[in-house]
Inverse folding.
């Protein structure tokens, strides 16, 4: 595994690329499609054409968006190119050329800019996941002075498949006597989809709004159940806003591990064989591998078995980088390929600490008629609470 060198801009990075092909083997898009233009090396050539001012065909532009931003190519590049930063700048240049309206991405942009979420639904719909909870809204929504602010995220708040994750998270927090609240309907999308579209200024505006909302509540920490939200808050917001944001940022897997170590969560036995899927934005792109595994290993009776590709080598579920918006069939194929690896472990339960990974992998399991239950880490913990 390599550590990328400081990003020198699209022109410099495309010149550095040696077109060696080390990046091909681990690229989920190339593995699914098999075309050179769908590989990181091929995308680098397309990006070089952008640098030289060449007009791109719609097909070539689409190739730059047919990438989950999983980061695997960045970890294996022998010339240490920061490929993630390269793809984001290339997308920014395309967005500046109105490519989003030529590709099926304009609606996603409009939803994010007008409604501040990926679905385009009104802000009050972010509260629908709370309807089956016994906790009072005064505890859950925008309570000033709460120590921790739970940033729910678009998928958990606005997709039916994600509601159980948000409900599980707050049940655990409540049982552990955590002093927490949420932003309620004031929460906006974290900005990751905007960044992936090539709209960093719009993403910075979102970051300013969300940070101001947390500061208005005097929250000391932000916890997320979404790895992309976590990566944005911890790693990208400081870069977008020009400095430290002044609050601790945790993924729920890290917080759960801490609560277990403090003796604030107790488990009953939950027998079974489980395999764990590393989300790209939590693992490769944020370096969090151990905490979620420690949570699973703390549950009596669970036997954790790893997939063939795991930790830094884990294959993408297909749910990242806005891929579903531009090529849903390709996203589904990536989920199917990852599901095959999960089935090969002999596990009956697949756990991931990511609401998007849960959604894509659970959909693939239903489509393939595989007897493998897919749960978020928080849902698994709730089931095992003593």
């Amino acid at each position: 595994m390599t550590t990328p060198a400081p990003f020198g801009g699209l022109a410099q990075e495309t010149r550095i690329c040696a077109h060696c092909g080390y990046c091909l083997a681990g690229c989920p898009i190339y593995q699914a499609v098999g075309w050179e233009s769908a590989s990181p090396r091929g995308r680098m050539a397309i990006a070089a054409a952008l640098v030289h001012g060449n007009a791109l065909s719609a097909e070539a532009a689409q190739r730059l968006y047919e990438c989950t931003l999983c980061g695997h190519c960045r970890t294996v590049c022998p010339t240490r190119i920061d490929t993630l930063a390269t793809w984001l700048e290339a997308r920014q240049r395309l967005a500046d050329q109105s490519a989003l309206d030529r590709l099926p991405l304009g609606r996603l942009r409009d939803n994010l800019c007008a409604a501040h979420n990926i679905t385009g639904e009104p802000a009050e719909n972010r509260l629908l996941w709370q309807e089956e909870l016994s906790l009072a809204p005064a505890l859950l929504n925008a309570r000033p002075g709460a120590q921790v602010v739970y940033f729910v995220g678009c998928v958990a708040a606005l997709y039916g498949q994600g509601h159980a994750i948000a409900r599980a998270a707050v049940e655990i927090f409540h049982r552990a006597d955590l002093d927490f609240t949420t932003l309620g309907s004031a929460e906006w999308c974290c900005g990751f989809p905007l960044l992936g579209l090539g709209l960093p200024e719009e993403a910075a505006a979102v970051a300013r709004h969300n940070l101001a909302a947390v500061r208005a509540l005097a929250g000391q920490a932000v916890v997320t159940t979404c790895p992309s939200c976590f990566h944005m808050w911890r790693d990208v917001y400081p870069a977008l806003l020009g400095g430290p944001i002044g609050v601790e940022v945790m993924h729920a897997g890290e917080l759960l591990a801490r609560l277990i170590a403090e003796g604030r969560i107790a488990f009953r036995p939950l027998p079974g064989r489980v395999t764990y899927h590393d989300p790209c934005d939590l693992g490769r792109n944020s370096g969090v591998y151990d905490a979620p595994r420690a949570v699973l290993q703390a549950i009596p009776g669970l036997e954790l078995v790893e997939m063939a590709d795991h930790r830094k080598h884990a294959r993408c579920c297909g749910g990242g980088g806005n891929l579903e918006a531009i090529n849903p069939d390709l996203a589904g194929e990536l989920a199917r390929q990852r599901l095959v690896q999960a089935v090969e472990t002999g596990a009956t339960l697949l756990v991931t600490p990511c609401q998007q990974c849960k959604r894509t992998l659970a959909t693939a399991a239903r489509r393939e008629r595989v007897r493998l239950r897919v749960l978020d880490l928080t849902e698994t913990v709730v089931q095992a609470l003593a």
